[in-house]
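Readers outside the structure-tokenisation community will struggle with the description of the input data as it stands. Showing the layout once, in full, would remove most of the difficulty. For illustration, here is how one protein appears when written out as sequence plus structure tokens:
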Amino acid sequence: MAKKNENRSNITLKCTKCGEVRIRTQKNRINTPERLEINKYCSKCRTHTPHKESKSA
């Protein structure tokens, strides 16, 4: 049996409009090797904006 979450890794999402880094989530690196882009609510912009995967420290 596979270990739980061995293919998943933590990523941070950055707002493309204001540059705020607030959202952390997980993704499967095997199924989606490219950078993720999701529309999420930004509390600083107060609208739904596209958030892109940023480099994690």
Q: What stands out?
A: The chain has no helices and four strands. Strands lie at 8-15, 21-28, 37-42, 47-54. Residues 23 and 53 are 10 Å apart (CA to CA). The two ends are 31 Å apart (CA to CA).
